[in-house]
Design goal:
Layout: E1 4-7, H1 16-30, H2 35-48, H3 52-62, H4 69-83, H5 88-99, E2 103-108, H6 112-122, H7 124-127, E3 130-133, H8 134-137, H9 144-153, E4 163-166, H10 169-178, E5 182-186, E6 200-202, H11 205-216
Parallel strand pairs: 1-2, 1-4, 2-3, 4-5, 5-6
Helix pairs in contact: 1-2, 1-4, 3-4, 4-6, 5-11
Bound molecules: magnesium ion.
Length: 217
């Protein structure tokens, strides 16, 4: 099997949940909402409406905001790339994999401006061979097509297999499996009850890069 490692972005390479909390606190302050509003936003994100379009329709309604749902969503996409971080050890681990002969790519669902902004602001765009963003390609995980694009951008194809690392049981693990990849699931304890069978289960992306490094040796 070839040394191709594809990674999900949100809550895999970057801690989106922490960035989301920062955003929610800023949002509440800007719109003069209570502390309870922050809890509401976080709960809505985690358990209810992770997709941003219905999310911001609901937020617009709930807090009777004058700005439209579309404007609130656009402001979110502008701000989010400034709030996410990729830990230096994760950046170094990706660079280390490439040094030892791995091709490293990112495959992520989300709007083009937000996801590309995150890749640029964190510097991740400079430490990988390629990336495939659903908002640019018009195709979403778990569709195999997005994994194929990511592999192509890394200068290869899915024909010789490889690995997919991500936190979403369906988009990343079932999708990666359907794409003919071995999989490592990052279990954050937030997605119980999905049918999926990853090859490895870890709690942090650093454990996943350790596994890949050992396999590659
Ligand atoms: Mg994710």
């Amino acid at each position: 099997m070839q040394r191709l490692a594809l990674f999900d972005l949100d809550n895999t390479l970057i801690d989106l949940d922490t960035a989301f909390l920062l955003w929610a606190e800023e949002f509440a302050e800007e719109h003069r909402l209570s502390r309870k509003a922050v809890d509401y936003l976080v709960k809505l994100d985690r358990n209810g409406l992770p997709h941003r379009e219905p999310f911001f329709s609901k937020v617009h309604e709930r807090f009777k905001l004058s700005a439209s749902a579309a404007d609130l969503w656009a402001a979110y996409r502008r701000r989010m790339p400034h709030l996410v971080e990729c830990r230096p050890e994760v950046m170094a681990a990706l660079a280390g994999l490439r040094t030892s002969g791995w091709r490293v790519g990112i495959v992520t669902n989300g709007t083009a401006d937000n996801q590309l902004g995150k890749l640029q602001r964190t510097g991740l765009i400079d430490v990988v061979d390629g990336y495939a963003l659903s908002g640019i390609e018009g195709i979403r995980k778990p569709d195999v097509g997005l994994f194929e694009i990511a592999a192509n951008r890394c200068g290869t194809s899915l024909a010789d297999g490889g690995w997919m690392v991500g936190d979403h049981p369906v988009a990343d693990i079932n999708g990666g499996h359907a794409a003919g990849l071995n999989t490592i699931w990052i279990d954050r304890g937030t997605r119980p009850g999905y049918e999926h069978s990853p090859d490895h289960v870890v709690t942090d992306v650093m454990c996943a890069t350790d596994i890949l490094r050992d396999i590659g040796e």
